[in-house]
Design brief:
Blueprint: E1 2-6, H1 10-21, E2 25-29, H2 33-42, E3 44-45, E4 49-53, E5 59-60, H3 64-68, E6 73-76, H4 80-90, E7 100-103, H5 116-124, E8 128-133, H6 138-141, E9 147-152, H7 156-166, E10 171-176, H8 179-201, H9 206-226, H10 237-248, H11 253-262, H12 267-274, H13 281-294, H14 300-310, H15 315-323
Parallel strand pairs: 1-2, 1-6, 2-5, 6-7, 7-8, 9-10
Antiparallel strand pairs: 3-4, 8-9
Length: 332
């Protein structure tokens, strides 16, 4: 198939390499023509995926109309907070009968508080949509480390198409019909990764981190079910699978933010240092907190992460609050 990757980031690049290895015709579009030119010349995405040689067959095109012409799949790999702008650029050339949209970004849009599938429909109207998510760091996928993810769609045939297109001996794809649950799993685990990083930054040990991850997946499932997902989805690859890898890996940008906060640095200082490298958990914490308040959901961990990020809350005070909540059954 001819496939267009709408992003010049690390995750889009890693998947472009995977798709090329599967024999597909891949073009990468980006918002910065000069950076696309640099990647084409150097055959490396030095900003977002340093050290990975890009195949000579990978094409680059800064013109959206030219980049998408003749493609069957459009891979949405732009960070959530910038995706609406990309969709508006795509809109004049979008035809729902021609294109299958595959989203690999993870987050909730600030201010609208929409999931990505909702944002896509709001901007583009009728569309065929699949979300691809799971425990999958770009740094490992690009180096052919065995990886397993889930493709979710309201249309089973579209999910199966993505399964066939993306699957390889080192990249296994399962299918699901729970778009809401898979999207929320990928988004909410980033908030929990910030909490895990804080525990690491404070050098509190393994016990609290294991407890946070366990109660975190319970909280994700509870909120996800109230927002229309299947609670069982959060026990799968896009839920607990992604939570584990994001909370424990040195590749995780969200865990890094938490770790630095745990060491006593300010959020503004950390984000300035990261530059264009996006930690989706920061805006998603605000989105998750806002959605939880709208439906009166009980989200103690999310509430404390929100307080630390946006209300100048103290990490140790938040841990004390969580530890001293009223006794209850674990099933709740």
């Amino acid at each position: 198939m001819k496939i267009t990757v709408l992003s010049d980031g690390g995750w889009g690049t890693a998947l472009a390499v995977n798709l090329l290895n599967n024999g597909h015709d891949v073009t990468m579009w980006g918002a910065f023509p000069e950076y696309l030119d640099q990647m084409e010349k150097t055959r490396e995405n030095v900003k977002f995926l340093k050290g990975v040689t890009l195949p000579e067959t990978l094409k680059f095109e800064a013109d959206m109309e030219k980049a998408t012409a003749g493609s069957t799949i459009l891979l949405l790999a732009t960070p959530t907070q910038y995706l609406r702008s990309v969709l508006n650029t795509l809109k004049p050339f979008f035809d729902p009968e021609k294109y299958l949209l595959v989203n690999v970004a993870k987050g909730i849009e600030v201010d609208s508080w929409l999931r990505i599938s909702e944002m896509v429909t709001e901007v583009l109207g009728e569309n065929r949509y699949v979300v691809l998510s799971g425990p999958s760091h770009a740094e490992e996928v690009a180096r052919h480390v065995p990886t397993v993810v889930t493709a979710a769609s309201c249309n089973a045939a579209d999910a199966e198409t993505v399964q066939q297109v993306f699957s390889s001996p080192v990249f296994r794809v399962y299918t699901s019909g729970d778009v809401v649950g898979v999207e929320l799993g990928g988004a909410l685990k980033n908030v929990m990764a910030i909490a895990a990083g804080m525990i690491d930054g404070m050098k509190l040990g393994d016990n609290p981190k294991a407890a946070m991850m366990t109660r975190g997946i319970t909280e994700m499932g509870r909120l996800g079910a109230l927002l229309g997902g299947d609670a069982a989805t959060f026990s799968g690859l896009s839920g607990i699978g992604d939570l584990i890898v994001t909370c424990t890996s040195g590749h995780s940008r969200n865990r890094y933010v938490g770790e630095e906060l745990g060491k006593g640095r300010t959020l503004a200082e950390i984000l300035e240092e990261m530059g264009m490298v996006v930690a989706e958990g920061v805006p998603t914490a605000k989105g998750a907190y806002t959605l939880a308040r709208k439906i009166n959901a009980e989200t103690p961990i999310i509430d404390e992460i929100y307080a630390i990020l946006y209300e100048n809350g103290d990490v140790r005070h938040s841990i004390s609050k969580l530890m001293n909540r009223p006794p209850r059954s674990e099933e709740r």
